[in-house]
């Protein structure tokens, strides 16, 4: 293999790495090791083992790739996955690298491969995750498969809104069939926009959060009718990334939030388990993400009644999630 080196040192190894990355769109260090080992083996004409690949190797290849792709408004960014790694490697946390488009919003990005009605459905899913199921009482920021399918249908309120604002093809968005909605959800999973938890809840992937950060804040953190700022999108006080899974302060008006993986180091450095914002004692049992639902008594009762956790259907999970939400509101409404 010829190894054309450009004047800036960019070579075939860099090109091979970028191609491998483009094919996947996200990568962890563990996933990058065999890829880089194969590239190094070819380049150095001797076998290089995945274990010999270092974080510094990956960082230098990503830096070179970023220089090559920046003219196209693309960038490889990284974030820590908000939930602990199943394998418990790297102290339970893992960094995810993702190729992101640095300029456009999600609806524009989907425009080349999804129809206008499908994109309107995706917007309803995002509204459900960041508005409907992200309230002062319950910051779940997830949807169940059943809730997603129910959003296939355009509500009259959505229709009024889409008629009032711009629709690419003119005219209001049309409903999808249940099958169409399910296939869009599957594509969003396959393409790495969404993740599905073992308990069946859909959330935005780390890649999507990185890519959509600016758009999410602009869309969901607005002033309400009385001119009060609504912070639907909140940030981890330790790492400053968006938080959609982690823990929250017990004080409902406080914006103190921490990822589980950030919390341990943060409290160790503070030498006290206090809210980083209001300094109240940290409760450890107030959650952001699906645990805002799954730790409610209502959800757990619903699971017991079904008798078999494997058989908890989306419908059961969905119904108990909503009930659980209301139950918590009632219970805490009395306590307030
Ligand atoms: Zn964090
Ligand atoms: Zn607080």
From TrEMBL:
<keyword id="KW-0227">DNA damage</keyword>
<comment type="subunit">
    <text>Component of the Smc5-Smc6 complex.</text>
</comment>
<comment type="function">
    <text>Acts in a DNA repair pathway for removal of UV-induced DNA damage that is distinct from classical nucleotide excision repair and in repair of ionizing radiation damage. Functions in homologous recombination repair of DNA double strand breaks and in recovery of stalled replication forks.</text>
</comment>
<dbReference type="Pfam" id="PF08746">
    <property type="entry name" value="zf-RING-like"/>
</dbReference>
<dbReference type="GO" id="GO:0030915">
    <property type="term" value="C:Smc5-Smc6 complex"/>
</dbReference>
<keyword id="KW-0833">Ubl conjugation pathway</keyword>
<dbReference type="InterPro" id="IPR014857">
    <property type="entry name" value="Nse1_RING_C4HC3-type"/>
</dbReference>
<keyword id="KW-0234">DNA repair</keyword>
<dbReference type="GO" id="GO:0061630">
    <property type="term" value="F:ubiquitin protein ligase activity"/>
</dbReference>
<protein>
    <recommendedName>
        <fullName>Non-structural maintenance of chromosomes element 1 homolog</fullName>
        <ecNumber>2.3.2.27</ecNumber>
    </recommendedName>
</protein>
<dbReference type="InterPro" id="IPR036388">
    <property type="entry name" value="WH-like_DNA-bd_sf"/>
</dbReference>
<keyword id="KW-0233">DNA recombination</keyword>
<dbReference type="GO" id="GO:0000724">
    <property type="term" value="P:double-strand break repair via homologous recombination"/>
</dbReference>
<dbReference type="InterPro" id="IPR001841">
    <property type="entry name" value="Znf_RING"/>
</dbReference>
<dbReference type="InterPro" id="IPR013083">
    <property type="entry name" value="Znf_RING/FYVE/PHD"/>
</dbReference>
<feature type="region of interest" description="Disordered">
    <location>
        <begin position="296"/>
        <end position="336"/>
    </location>
</feature>
<dbReference type="GO" id="GO:0005634">
    <property type="term" value="C:nucleus"/>
</dbReference>
<feature type="compositionally biased region" description="Acidic residues">
    <location>
        <begin position="323"/>
        <end position="336"/>
    </location>
</feature>
<dbReference type="Pfam" id="PF07574">
    <property type="entry name" value="SMC_Nse1"/>
</dbReference>
<dbReference type="GO" id="GO:0008270">
    <property type="term" value="F:zinc ion binding"/>
</dbReference>
<dbReference type="InterPro" id="IPR011513">
    <property type="entry name" value="Nse1"/>
</dbReference>
<keyword id="KW-0539">Nucleus</keyword>
<feature type="compositionally biased region" description="Polar residues">
    <location>
        <begin position="296"/>
        <end position="319"/>
    </location>
</feature>
<keyword id="KW-0808">Transferase</keyword>
<keyword id="KW-0862">Zinc</keyword>
<keyword id="KW-0479">Metal-binding</keyword>
<keyword id="KW-0863">Zinc-finger</keyword>
<feature type="domain" description="RING-type">
    <location>
        <begin position="236"/>
        <end position="279"/>
    </location>
</feature>
<comment type="similarity">
    <text>Belongs to the NSE1 family.</text>
</comment>
């Amino acid at each position: 293999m010829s190894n054309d080196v450009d004047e800036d040192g960019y070579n075939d190894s860099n090109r091979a790495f970028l191609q491998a990355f483009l094919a996947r769109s996200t990568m962890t260090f563990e996933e990058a090791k065999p890829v880089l080992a194969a590239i190094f083996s070819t380049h150095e004409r001797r076998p290089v083992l995945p274990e010999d690949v270092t974080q510094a190797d990956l960082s230098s290849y990503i830096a070179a790739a970023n220089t090559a792709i920046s003219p196209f408004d693309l960038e490889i960014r990284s974030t820590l996955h908000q939930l602990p790694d199943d394998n418990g490697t790297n102290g339970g946390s893992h960094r995810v690298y993702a190729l992101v488009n640095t300029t456009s919003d999600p609806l524009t990005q989907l425009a080349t491969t999804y129809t206008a009605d499908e994109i309107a459905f995706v917007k309803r899913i995002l509204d459900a995750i960041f508005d409907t199921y992200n309230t002062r009482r319950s910051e779940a920021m997830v949807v169940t498969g059943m809730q997603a399918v129910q959003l296939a249908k355009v509500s009259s309120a959505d229709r009024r809104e889409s008629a009032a604002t711009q629709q690419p093809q003119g005219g209001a968005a049309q409903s999808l069939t249940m099958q169409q909605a399910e296939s869009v959800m599957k594509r969003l999973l396959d393409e790495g926009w969404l993740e599905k938890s073992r308990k069946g809840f859909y959330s935005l992937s780390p890649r999507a959060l990185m890519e959509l950060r600016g758009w999410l804040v602009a869309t969901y953190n607005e002033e309400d009718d009385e001119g009060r700022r609504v912070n639907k999108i909140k940030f981890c006080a330790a790492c400053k990334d968006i938080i959609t899974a982690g823990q929250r302060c017990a004080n409902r008006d406080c914006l103190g939030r921490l990822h589980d993986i950030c919390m341990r180091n943060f409290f160790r450095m503070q030498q006290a388990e206090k809210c980083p914002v209001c300094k109240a004692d940290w409760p450890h049992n107030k959650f952001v993400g699906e645990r805002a639902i799954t730790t409610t008594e209502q959800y757990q009762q619903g699971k017991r009644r079904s008798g078999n956790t494997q058989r908890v259907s989306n419908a059961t999970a969905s119904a108990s999630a909503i009930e659980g939400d209301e139950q918590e509101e009632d219970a805490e409404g009395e306590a307030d």
